[in-house]
Amino acid sequence: MNIKLLAIGKTDNNELQSLISNYTKRLGFYIKFSFEIIPDLKKVKNLSTEQQKQKEGELILSITSKSDILILLDENGKQLNSVEFSSYLQKHMNSGIKQLVFVIGGPYGFSKDVYNRANGKFSLSKMTFSHQMVRLFFIEQLYRGFTILKNEPYHHQ
């Protein structure tokens, strides 16, 4: 199984980018993982919030396959602890799916089309985090999930 993380807009903070790269490299020992950036939209001042979500949604849907399991990282999604999340990953690996895709939306969330296409939604917290920090938190949780599955001493209960 492959895991892909999609995010709108690049990370402009070098410290965060360094940590993201570190955890991305660590993940490579467990699974094929890719992190893909969807470029920020140009001229958003001329677009309404709904138009911006629609255009971002079109970009998200254009780079995903119908066979992908698409999971949105959304403030209204289901919350799991790290052990539950590792079990979720194991379930999908056992199911034989080819690709599990997680998506971090733009500043206003997702379009209706993306919500309709999604196979599920997860929330990392009831708190709001910057989209750049969510990338790091999520990739770290992926890494943590695989260390839990391998019974490695990274996660403590």
Give me a quick take on this structure.
The protein has helices at 14-27, 49-62, 82-95, 112-117, 131-149, and strands at 2-8, 32-38, 69-78, 99-104, 120-122. By secondary structure, it is α/β, with parallel strands linked by helices.
**Alpha-carbon Rg, integer:** 15 Å
Query: For the report, how would you describe the main beta sheet?
Result: 5 strands, parallel
The chain-level mean pLDDT equals 94
State which percent range the strand residues make up.
Answer: 15-25%
Helix content: 40-55%
Total strands: the figure is: 5
Q: Segments where pLDDT lies below 50 for 5+ residues?
A: none
Structural class: alpha/beta
Physical arrangement of strands within the biggest beta sheet = 2-1-4-3-5
How would you describe the overall organization of this protein?
There is one protein chain. The protein is α/β, with parallel strands linked by helices and 157 residues long. 43% of the residues lie in helices and 21% in strands. It has helices spanning 14-27, 49-62, 82-95, 112-117, 131-149; strands at residues 2-8, 32-38, 69-78, 99-104, 120-122. Strands 2-1-4-3-5 form a 5-stranded parallel sheet. Helix 1 runs parallel beside helix 5 (131-149) and helix 3 (82-95) packs across helix 5. The longest helix is centred in the last third of the chain and has 19 residues, at 131-149. The radius of gyration is 15 Å and the shape is globular. The model has no long low-confidence stretch (mean pLDDT 94).
Task: List the keywords.
single chain, alpha/beta, 21% strand
Task: Summarize the topology.
Layout: E1 2-8, H1 14-27, E2 32-38, H2 49-62, E3 69-78, H3 82-95, E4 99-104, H4 112-117, E5 120-122, H5 131-149
Parallel strand pairs: 1-2, 1-4, 3-4, 3-5
Helix pairs in contact: 1-5, 3-5
